[in-house]
Design goal:
The chain contains three helices and no strands. With 74 residues, the protein is mainly alpha-helical. The chain folds into two domains: 43 residues, no CATH class; 30 residues. Helix 1 packs antiparallel against helix 2.
């Protein structure tokens, strides 16, 4: 059962990465729905520390791009 659940998670990540942008978040939500309702797993509390770190990195990248110092976003 673990391998099937792992396959669901990895396939959602790969499809989301192929879609790009908000598609990764949508596929993550779809994967969570499949794991919750099909496999009966209960989601835990959201990892607030990780979400705040991601927001800080995105804000720093956006600031660098706005200031003209981020050439990798062209």
């Amino acid at each position: 059962m673990f391998l099937v659940e792992l396959l669901v998670v990895l396939s959602c990540i790969l499809v989301g990465a192929r879609i790009g942008g908000i598609g990764l978040g949508v596929m993550g939500g779809l994967g969570l729905l499949v794991l919750s309702f099909v496999f009966g797993l209960q989601p835990t509390h959201p990892p607030i520390d990780v979400l705040l770190m991601i927001m800080a990195v995105v804000a720093a990248a956006a600031t660098m791009q706005a200031a003209g110092g981020a050439r990798f976003f062209n």
